Amino acid sequence: MSDPIDEFSFLPDQAADAGLEGPLPRGERVNLALPSGRTLSALRWTPDGSASAPVVTFLHGAGLNAHTWDTTVLALGLPALAIDLPGHGDSSWRDDAAYVGRVLAPDVAAGMDAWTDRAQLLVGQSLGGLTAAAVAASRPDLVRELVVVDITPGVDPSAGPSQIREFFAGPTDWASRDELVDRALAFGLGGGTRRKAERGVFFNSRVRPDGRVEWKHHFAHLAAAAASTPGAPDAPPAESASTPDAVSAVLGDAGWEDLAAWAAPTTLVRGARGYVTEADAAEFVRRNPEATVTTLASGHNVQEDAPIELAAMLRGLAGND
């Protein structure tokens, strides 16, 4: 697997794979220096010939990065912002390893303050969905409408989410990206084809000076440390999302409290083969009676399995159907 010219070189192939025609949007990498000394990074997308500010902001799940939304953005056709959550992609790792929604929300809000000029259709998948709920609860001025993708605070952490923990609880460095692609496909991840898995692995990994390949995101390193040395002094703290107890904490009552504090329109999108069961969705609506639930034919990563359908739904919510 060879490296592309730049991080946007995959776009023509992605558009072709999805059957999308027409001009490609312009993508640019933007970075924000945070008061803590860390950096928040994101991708800002504008349709061809447009200078419009984003109207949709995307937050990815644990172990992913902003590029997971690429095909959805291509199909959306609207100005958009996709943020690398702290500890993921090109955003700095947190020294406290606290990767939960309420901790990540202030950084996301800072990015939205810097890179948007109006209330957003805020779309978050998995950990990004819980973070989006925390942003909506704490900074409602930034959010016009909330879309939570295949996650609820009540999801059983020993069910679907355990797959992610097991996937990353392995070696932290590899001889080549091809080895990472093989591992992703073995776990049924990566989008279903080797070419899609190669794109995902490229965006989610980096080559170290010694030639070894490692995951970019902190989550994998924390998960591996917790699996190999449980209880060790350098194991991640309880606030991180890398241990069974921490996963339970991430999916706990704080998320329900954030959703209850948000009074504007909310949509839950569940993948038919994803983590959110029909019972989870029913509980979501019981707690949020005005919420709408949409089910798409996909797994947990709806934005990769059903990007065209997801984009069509989001375009309608944004008032551009």
From TrEMBL:
Coiled coil: none annotated. One of its GO terms (molecular function) is hydrolase activity. Keywords: Hydrolase. Residues 227-246 are annotated as: Disordered. The keyword Hydrolase applies. Gene3D superfamilies: alpha/beta hydrolase (3.40.50.1820). Residues 54-167 form the AB hydrolase-1 domain. This is Alpha/beta fold hydrolase. It comes from Microbacterium insulae.
